[in-house]
């Protein structure tokens, strides 16, 4: 699959096809190579990595597919996961592809349409707790059954190895090393995967903007303190990013790279969703808009930079009605 071309930008219009990393069992991975959409945002030359076009509609399938294949090779008969939406859908998709039963435990904040989509893939669905962390407690208990594997949404090295394939694809799609990559952060699985990818390809000078919603920003305060800080009541329209605490491995991993924590408002995130839909016809959720908001705002952390990649991480937890409402709210401001 090739990147979409734009002659003014330093990205290949017809790069060599990226070769996805082999799965843990030697089979073809469940995720696909996604295109890099070339564009300009103000003075920035931006490559939008369209992982919203994955079969499971988010980057989650990269790591979750890798982990599920690993457990399938061990002979498990059921996957159990906890999720606010995207991870659960990806596990349900992987389970159907591998012929393995799936139980997904979600919090009450997960929208009804996401519950219907997960059930449509044949997964058993349970709704427990107000936020992901509470649903996760139940999922861990269920995963104690024989021949059952727990599939976490973000905190497992095999997940990060799978997510690293995103950066390996960028090596094939970019003519040169980008100055920065903008990534949305909830629990931190994607960020850990991107850092692993940067390590693999030798892009240690690329800055990483680790972007969180203002109401659910565990990474920023944890990095400042040097240890994981648990939030009391994380809140955001970006429900996929609402977790009480980041993966502990992030503290050490972020010290190895130029990681800049950034927080954005829900309004900025939804504005980014509307702009991407209007300018490029891509429907994305607030979690993904969170990553793109600093690009549209020309954040100070991007000063002096020319080439930036924005990870378009997912387009699942959103409806056309949501986009219309956010667009109308912009007009009223």
Explain the overall architecture:
It comes from Tahibacter aquaticus. Pfam families: PALP (PF00291). It catalyses: L-serine = pyruvate + NH4(+). About 40% of the residues lie in helices and about 15% in strands. A 6-stranded mixed sheet has the order 1-2-10-7-8-9, sandwiched between helices. A 4-stranded parallel sheet has the order 5-4-3-6, with helices on both faces. It has 2 domains: about 35-60 and about 160-330, Rossmann fold (3-Layer(aba) Sandwich), CATH 3.40.50; about 60-155, 3-Layer(aba) Sandwich (Rossmann fold). Mean pLDDT is about 90; it is low at about 1-25. Helix 1 (about 60-75) packs across helix 5. It is built from 12 helices and 10 strands. The protein starts with about 35 loop residues before the first strand and ends with a helix. The radius of gyration is 18 Å and the shape is globular. With about 325 residues, it is of the alpha/beta class. Helix 7 (about 190-200) links the parallel strand 7 (about 180-185) and strand 8 (about 205-215). The longest helix has 15 residues, at about 265-280.
